[in-house]
Amino acid sequence: QVTLAEAGGGQVQAGGSLRLSCRFSGRTFSTYAMGWFRRAPRKEREFVATISGNGDSTSYSDSAKGRFTISRDNANPTVFLQMDSLKPDDTAVYYCAASPFGIEAMATGRGDYWGRGTQVTVSP
After folding, report:
1. Which residue, among 80, 85, 91, 87, has the nearest Cα to 8 in the 3D structure?
2. Buried b (16+ CB within 10 A) or exposed e, 83-103
3. Could you tell me which of 85, 86, 99, 113 has the fewest CB atoms within 10 Å of its CB?
């Protein structure tokens, strides 16, 4: 059983930065693609970014490209999302996800395991 625990959310002003982390436990971390999703108030969950098991491949949503960076530390099973140049539209609950089926599946929303989420609030 995989367990995911997000941390690092909070409130920041527009233009600021936050770094989210997600601790993975329960299986072999490097065999899972990892991803970040978010759900804003009154909106559906949307894909943000994903990274392959060995960290060599990444994929981003259009809204995240150029501002967010996903990375992972396979020695300390954690995935990160560095968020820069934050905008009020980035306000959402951010969820970490894990999938053994690769980043292509993750980018379509195929997360087999999910964390409980961490709130990110960006004020104007």
Report:
1. 80
2. beebeeebbbbbbbbbbeeeb
3. 85
pLDDT, position 111 = 82
CB 2 within 8 A of CB 26: yes
CB atoms within 10 A of CB 76: 9
Contact 4, 113 (CB under 8 A): yes
Q: CA 71, CA 62: separation in Å to the nearest integer?
A: 18
Residue identified by tokens 């894990």 is 98
Per-residue pLDDT of the chain (124 residues; tens, 9 = 90+): 899 999 999 999 999 999 999 999 999 999 999 999 999 999 999 999 999 999 999 999 999 999 999 999 999 999 999 999 999 999 999 999 999 999 999 999 888 899 999 999 999 9
Q: Rounded to whole angstroms, how far apart are CA atoms 118 and 8?
A: 7
Cα→Cα distances 116→33, 35, 93, 113, 119, Å: 18, 14, 9, 10, 10
**Could you tell me the maximum CA-CA distance found in the chain, to the nearest angstrom?**
41
